[in-house]
Design goal:
85 residues, mainly beta, 1 helix, globular
Amino acid sequence: MQITYIGHSGFLVETSECYYLFDYYQGTLPSLQTDKPILVFSSHVHQDHYNPAVFKLLKSMGMEQITAVLSKDIPKKNILRIPRT
């Protein structure tokens, strides 16, 4: 397991099976294996813990399998739909 501090409250955890991205706010993500699944966790709605731009960023990096695990206080209208590939 490898853990990378992204900034503020954000961490990226890599295992042999997949990536786990926690509370991404801003910052540079390391190079990722695009065929490995990534789970994006947001603990609550505050801007510094939930930045919906992360999904566009991951898609622009070529990530193929993105799953969002979001706090129930994030209003549905604020959830960026992740296009299926």
